[in-house]
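Troubleshooting: if your tokenizer reports a length mismatch, compare your output against this known-good record of 440 residues.
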Amino acid sequence: MIYLTQNQGRIIGPISKLLGFIMHGIYELLSAVGIENLGITIILFTLIVNLLMLPLTIRQQRFSKLQVKMNPELTAIRKKYEGRRDNASMYAQQEEMKQVYAKYGVSQMGSCLPLLVQLPILWALYRVIYAIPAYVTKVKRVFFPLAVGLLGVTGSAEFMEGLGGAAQYAAQFHNEAFTEEQANEYAQNTYIDVLNRASTADWDRIEANYPEVDNGAEHVVTAEVRAKVESMNNFLGMNIGDSPSQTIKSNWAESNYLKVLFAILVPLLAAATQWLNTKLMPQMASAGGDPNDPQARMANQMRTMNYFMPLMSAFICFSLPVGVGLYWIAGAVIRIVQQIFINRWIDRMDIEAMIEENQEKYKKKLEKKGERTQNMSQYAAMNTRSLASYVNFSGSSMSQEEKDAALEKARGYYDSGKARKDSLLAAANMVRAYEEKNNK
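Known-good structure output:
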């Protein structure tokens, strides 16, 4: 079967399918006990995904703790090379900073790597939440009979294209790049996508224009499909397919102020929980607040973002489906609980003992590196003699000029590519190149 509504990206696509499999499993388990609710499914889905990403979170925050200890040494190195922009100084600064990171047993990418890993996961999460029918079979089956019935009605494509939730699917109504069989399923999935994104106002229009349809296998009553969809989407009396602004507008007119209050709380809670989550996270050391220090500037920028992003979340959340806001709130609350336990665990860790252990490992690494260098030098001396024997000038009758010429001839033979790569000549020349590079 061609799942055209699933993400087909090389990176996001496989991750979305894996996360979709998890959401499908959660919904199936809830359905088995008589609960078919997407709001609860999203909360449980968010909990499981955050637990799976917990090792990355712990690694990132261990790095933050060690960074506080490293910061004075890194700051001293930056000040040592302050104002020096020549290549030699920049290279020396980078090497000294690399040694500090190695001494503490962390990578220079220690804080970035977990974020880079989490980024495609977060994109995939949004893809799954926005297109749940593409990944959860039972949800797709609710929409499927109506989608097939509407597809057989003349003029339905133009009508569906005009619905509020259809803007991002407009081009799909006119795609001609598929075979007849593919195009039929492509159109079905597009209709399901639009129905999944339909607001209460959109469903009013659908029911008014197409109260009943026939899909060839059964007679479908639009009101019955709508009732099933609203039952799945109902969470605390709100339709998670509607945005808070739509919920406020429709319920204010009906004087349903409790739902209005819930709709206002969604973006406010999304902002508040995100802000609290950032406050609990370890903050980047600011290098004494020196405005000329790059790390201090980065720390100040991070603090500004920690205040700005929650406000942006509240603003954006008003226009997004309540389900997205619910995901944000659930994710932030779960991370807050995680952060409390992580902070307690890290506070009990003996950071000094960890640093000493990392420094011992670093010393052993340097010792091994020194041994390899010494062995390489011995191998170089041995193979230089082997190179001489290869050209056969061990006799005393050859002058030094003749010996040099013979050696040059052997090297020329190697450089021509005719010498076997596993031959003694090849090994000797490899060592010669190594020695020349180090002598430079």
